[in-house]
Every structure is written in C-alpha cells, then in structure tokens.
Request: fold
Amino acid sequence: VVLVTKSGKERLCDELLSGEKSVRGQMLAALKKDKIKIDGKLIFGDTSIRVIPDECGNGIADLRSGDDNLRAADFMLRQIRQYTESSDTVVLASIAGGRKTMSALLFSCMSLLGREDDKVFHVLLPPEFEGGVVPTMYFPVKGVVYTNKRTGKKYKSDKYKSELFEVPFVRMRGWYQEKFKSIPPSYQTLISKVQTVAPPAVN
Reply:
C-alpha cells in the first residue's frame, strides 16, 4: 500500500506501472529469473494506492502548508490503524521517498500505533548513487551501467548494493491502549492524550 499525494500517484503510475515494459513488470521478471518465489505475493494495483485527501475530500496535489501536513498525518494514522487493528497483519512501513515531513509523520504514526512485530525500514543507497543516476535505479539490475547525474561518473551495478535498514523505534501503544476506550482519529488529539499518560520526563 502506498500513501501518496495526487501528483505522486500520477508519477508512480507513469514511471512504475505504465507501458509494456513497466518497472514493476521488469522487477517481477528479474525476481523470477533469480528463482525467487513470488506467486501470490507482491500483489499491487490501483486499489493499493491511497491518495491523501484535501479539505474537500479530493486528492491533495502536494504538501505545501502546515494544514496539508496535518491532514496527511490524520490520513496516515487512519490507514495504519486499520492494519494494526488486525492481529493477522504485520505492518512493514518504508519511510523512503516522499516529502521529508511525510517520512517523519509516518515514522511518528508507527511509534503511536506500532505493535511488537511491526517494523519500519529505510532504503540506503550507495554514496555513488546519491543525487540521482541515469538510468533511474528503482531496483538493482545486473549488467547495467549507471551514470551519476552530478559527476558524470559511471558505475557498474554489480559492484554496488543498496541496504534495507530496519529503523529502531519506540512503540508507545502499550502506554495508553489500556487507558483509552478508543484511539482518537486525529493525529494531534492522540499526541496530546499520549502526553498525559507518557512516563514523566527526567530532568
């Protein structure tokens, strides 16, 4: 599931899902070639893309104001909550991509709602790939030579690896779930309520 702005969805569909040789199709083919079993897994489609709504309920174009970001926080909280309410579902959240505030808010929502088995991840690229490369690297492809946009230097993909880093985070749900009758739907309200039951600060 991707939580995204309206412009982000358009870019995602154009760059990853469109065309005969979509990036998603290429990735699935590469996994099969490496004999990684994916049948019935990695299910993703239009219903997996959740667009953050504006004050009228329409897809928000971008997060450019404080109000935009608070609406995004409420939306993320609702989306994550629906999955963390199910004992059969483990949430693996990625904070890679998007606006920095989106990553920060998603991380915060995971701290507020995350359970013992839920995890947060970030993708770490090799320093040689920072600033962007041509062609765009969505996932490592064997035999491809990438050119750094800033330096013009070329790098063979075989020699470089990205890292999926599990980000440790504080799970605050246990502090309040016995005290609250229900989890407030508002991000700011939940933050305020958690502050009333959180362990006192040490001076």
